[in-house]
Amino acid sequence: MEGIEFPLFPSKGLRLRRKIQDWLEEFQKLLYVSPYEDYSHLDPNSDIAEKRVVGFFHELLSLFVEHSAERKKLLSLKKYFGLPQKVHKAFERHPHMFYLSFKNKTCTAILKEAYGDDELAIERHPMLMVRKKYIRLMKESEVVDRQIALPP
Hints:
By secondary structure, the chain is mainly α.
């Protein structure tokens, strides 16, 4: 195992206290435990176990099309994947990676990496361009249909 750093996407208005910023830098240097590896030897209260949990949610959210999911549904997975009891803290303690949206009385966890402004960390799927062309064609055909249907 090696110390792999997670990509961070700080919010413009987010300012972390120096103590927390120092902890985050040390957290980034910790050994990376793959979400696919055996984790039974880890102390559930350690920072390395937290890095595994963060890696797990990072991997899981990156698999979803919208790169987001209801936090309640994500937390229900802790039994099946052997996640620690206080797994919800992963979203709150890592605001540079996850964004929590509180709309319509629902808390949604969103992977910030997927919505970066400058560079996309997640590759665009080739079908996305085909889909956009199809949508544009359908909109154009509506205009053509309306012009044909209306008498001059």
